[in-house]
Design brief:
Elements: E1 6-8, H1 11-29, H2 39-52, E2 56-60, E3 67-71, H3 83-94, H4 98-101, E4 106-110, E5 113-115, E6 121-125, H5 130-135, H6 142-154, E7 162-165, E8 169-171, H7 185-202, E9 206-210, H8 212-219, H9 225-228, E10 232-235, E11 238-243, H10 246-251, H11 256-272, H12 279-282
Parallel strand pairs: 6-7, 6-9, 9-11
Antiparallel strand pairs: 1-2, 2-3, 4-8, 5-7, 10-11
Helix pairs in contact: 3-7
Length: about 290
């Protein structure tokens, strides 16, 4: 916490609500019947509401004027004797996770994870899409098929790795059919405790964040994948690599150079895991002489 900041009591939130109510009553006395709220104002009111229900801490600056609310999301309880049982216990809790459900911006079907709960390699995407929601499994659509191709080139089967998403529900959109959107920071924050718990159960030797949104939610990074990839990061003390989302390779008609960048990231993962790399694998997507 920065110097000079203090954690205020819940009464700060109550005073904030009181000030809002006083303002609204004054406007009503002046004959105002409607007040416009922009997205930022709605977000502030939602956060105050969550805080009033015990959803966070209020941090006030030394001048006592600027107040920020830091949400405190509940932590899932891990139970079970084996890694598979522990992951199952997490999935059961995610079904009705209040922090995610109360947002009102996510769809109903929960999509948790797939693969080996004792894997050395964990891959994390952003959120389930149309295909994943139908089958209740991460990465089963075209992007999932591309991911399977990448794993196969590494000499791995899908069942040998652990695959998950930051957000456990498909983000909701108006008039939604098979179209998808990226999750918001608020949606990712609501589900991140599960990802942390999954990592603690699986204890992978390496994590790969697939795409910029996954890197943002998992590692707190921002910007383009081109600037995030090519180096090692860390999550909960575990080496983490960022690479392009498999969907990017499909929708952008990625050229050999971009495919090579993804493959170079995977070669580094293979090296870290102590996997044997053949001359053929080393040469994938290199320019032909």
């Amino acid at each position: 916490m920065p110097a000079g900041l203090r954690v205020a009591s819940l009464s700060v939130v109550n005073r904030s609500f009181a000030l809002v109510l006083d303002f609204l009553r004054a406007e009503e006395d002046r004959g105002v019947t409607h007040v416009h709220l922009d997205d930022e104002a709605r977000g502030i009111l939602r956060t105050l509401f969550l805080q009033g229900k015990g959803g966070g801490e209020v941090i006030a600056g030394p001048d006592r004027e600027a107040v920020a609310v830091v949400p405190t999301v509940a932590v899932p309880v891990v139970t079970g004797a084996t890694p598979a049982e522990r992951i199952a216990s997490l999935a059961a809790q995610a079904e009705d996770w209040a922090a995610a459900r109360m947002l009102g911006t996510l769809r109903e079907t929960m999509v948790f994870s797939t693969g080996n709960p004792e894997a050395d390699l964990m891959l994390v995407g952003e959120a389930p899409g149309h295909h994943e929601e139908l089958q209740r499994e991460p990465f089963v659509g075209p992007a999932g098929q591309k991911l399977d191709d990448i794993l196969r080139a590494m000499g791995l089967a899908r069942g040998q790795v652990y695959i998950s998403n930051i957000v456990k529900f498909r983000p909701r959109m108006p008039n939604q059919s098979n179209n998808n959107r990226k999750p918001t920071p608020e949606e990712m924050a609501a589900c991140l405790p599960f990802v942390r718990a999954e990592v603690a159960v699986v204890r992978p030797k390496c994590i790969v964040a697939l795409g910029a949104t996954a890197a943002e939610g998992l590692l707190g990074l921002s910007g383009a994948v081109a600037r995030m990839r090519g180096t090692w990061h860390s999550f909960e003390g575990i080496p983490a690599r960022v690479t392009y989302h498999p969907a990017y390779l499909i929708h952008s008609n990625a050229n050999h150079s971009q495919k090579r960048q993804v493959w170079e990231d995977m070669l580094e993962v293979m090296k870290l895991l102590g996997m044997e790399i053949s001359p053929k694998q080393q040469g994938f997507f290199l320019p032909r002489a």
